[in-house]
Amino acid sequence: MPFMPVKFNLQKRVKLAQGLWMLYWFSVIAGILIFSLGIFFKIELRKRSEMMDNNESHLVPNLLILVGLLACGLNAFGGKVCHDSLDPIKFSKWKPMLKTYLLLCCGFNVLLVLVSLLCFLMQFSVYLTLAEGLSYAIRFYKDTDTPGRCFMKRTLDMTQIEFHCCGNNNFRDWFEVQWISNRYLDMSNDVVKDRVLSNVEGKYLMDSVPFSCCNPGSPRPCIQHHLTNNSAHYDYDHRTEELNIWTRGCLEALFSYYSSLMSSIGVFVLFAIILESVDMAGLKYLSTALETMAEPENPECESEGWLLEKGVKETFSDLLTKLKTFGRTNQVEGGDAPEANT
Amino acid sequence: MALLPVKFDLKKRVKLAQTVWFMYWFAVLAGVLVLSMGLFFKIELRKRSELMDNNESHFLPNLLILMGLIACSINVFGGKVCYDSLDPDKFAKWKPMLKTYLVFCVGFNALLLVTAVLCFLMRIPMQFTLAEGLRNGMRYYKDTDTPGRCYMKRTLDLMQIEFRCCGNDNYRDWFEIQWVSNRYLDFSSKEVKDRIGSNVDGQYLMDGVPFSCCNPSSPRPCIQAQMTNNTAHYSYDHYTEDLNVWKRGCREALLSYYGGMMNTIGALVILVTMLEASVTVGMQYVHSSLCNLANPEDPESESEGWLLEKTVKETFTDIMDKMKSMGKGIKVEEGEPAVETVS
Prior knowledge:
Chain B: InterPro entries: Peripherin/rom-1 (IPR000830), Peripherin/rom-1_CS (IPR018498), Peripherin_LEL (IPR042026), Tetraspanin/Peripherin (IPR018499), Tetraspanin_EC2_sf (IPR008952). The complex is a heterodimer of chains A (342) and B (343). Helix content of chain A is 60%, strand content 2%. Chain A contains 8 helices and 2 strands, in the order E-H-H-H-H-H-H-H-E-H. Chain A is elongated and about 100 Å long. Chain B is an all-alpha fold and 343 residues long. Chain B has a domain of 191 residues. Chain B has a two-stranded antiparallel ribbon.
């Protein structure tokens, strides 16, 4: 007994073919969207790869690009088949390929599910890469004369200005590194010598932050230096001061940006999966409706379409039996070889 | 003798009507483009109206929006007329309006050209508006507690960061005004009292700039305070220091931004004017070729289309005569009642 059978007359078949053709074109547009989202994500990762120590994984955007192209191709082919389905001569040349095509679509749907899962799971990897990359970035901020790192200062300044953040977890991260290059420190000065000697590693540490941490929304001019010293500035209490510099850490800011991007892409891929499944079901109905015409010569006759030829359980057991016979044939062939040897 | 006459048979007429219909749809798109450019320019002016002292003239964007709307509507009408032109019945109802429509189109084209010229000329008043607005903006930088001006600091900081500029003409403009609010100055301190006493207006002036003037590309951390004092910083010479703060003034930066936008809009409006002129010419040919059918009943007959019925000189003298007779008609009307009542 077929699974979910539906009766079709000519009018119903024509309507199904037309509706399905339109749906396939929507799916092509969805495929193009996935492709462009993949490219956009790749560009965003490249733009800030310095913040991630050039270590970021491009797996998700590459997969999205591939999946987008595949979706476009498969859906364009499906649309062409639908367009030709109402003309028996044209449809007959597509008929033999349909079974393979539907199997391909099934496999493609599984791939889409995998991509969607990755979009949500790879966020952890992005978080870890960002944490490591940002701590290196803060350490290399002062190396404006080292080839390969000379733009780190500019990149980090622009990131802090753009994302409204300061430091890795908060602004105190800047107190733990030397972010002024030695070239601009007067080593003969007592103050400098004291600071450098005050810690084990001989770093010039201070309770100051770079200018890019400043919040333009603050009512007073930015206080960058002596942040923890209340008496150094008039009417200033560093415990209650909120608007002076950005209080958010760049790790949190960048991660929330990338995670919202990846989540939206994941949701869109789920939507594309639903669309693809509907396409597949429609095509299966159309092909079975055209194959089971009571009188093949009369296009206006009735026919029946279904999703599966037998029930779900029977189809499943059929598949298993097929796989077993396939395996047994291999074993028998393997067994023949020793006979040939003897 | 007609100006630029062209012979038409049915096939040529059909082709002409189809091409002109197609061009009218491009012209509709062009009208939509002009409308959106006007809207975009208006939004950009509004975004930064605080920096122009809320005094900026919205004449040009409003004119662009109006032109865009008019262009859309007359091009849609023209497209409809072209579509109907091949059916004599439908075309008969449009025929009487066409002459007025074409005159209106010519007038509209002239207006479009004027708009394009304005786009290039409006740069000059904008320069003055910007200069004054920025000067006031810098003066109100410290007034973060005055209602109506409390966001000036943020707006100015964000603008200096975005446009990579500092001050009005250059960074020294910040040396001439007090940009630290009195609320954050310790008036009991000797240093503060000295600075305030050192000038007539009693302002706290210093050779420092706000943080938004800092250039992130500088290899050294930003030097904002005591900028003209070489000894205050190690290995620093303010005469040769190039990368520390932005060198460009904000008036120049904003003017080049808006000027570039207006130049692009002006160039696009000129292109739209050329497109409109060509569709007007096409419509005139369609109109004249359909009006001059050798045999009015037979749609397949030959006909002649032209740009002007007589030559340029004759058309011009005709128009002058018409205007004179219209003027005389008005004078005669005024004269008659006066004569009647007097006598």
